[in-house]
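Entry type: protein chain
Record version: 2
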Amino acid sequence: MNIDINLIVDFILKVILILFTVLIVPKLQEWLSKKIGEQETDKLIALIYELVRAAEQVLYGKDEDGSLRKKYVIEALKDMGYEWNATIDSYIESAVFDLNREAHQEYCKEDLKDIYDGFIPYEEEADDNPSNEQ
């Protein structure tokens, strides 16, 4: 009985390759597409934040209710190839909320700074003044 070792090794390698293709590649593909999707989402969110800031800068004082600023952001996104949907709308609202919160915090810091500028913490005077000795 003459067994060809090359045929056995070839068969084992083919089985390993088939198992790898069937079991590992789909998981790898799923992980990779999820990772790319997360990166694209992060890029989109960062882009929306920058567009919201730009809209605030460009339309400052010209838009009481924010509708022009929102339209500015949506149009800029459409020009870049993004379709408006509820998810993008929620990202825009989140960016506006964060921008307003940052502005409010800065406003409060300025108020507190004005209040505490002249404030000197209470310190007890030492009784080492020789004029008070009797």
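Comment: The radius of gyration is 33 Å.
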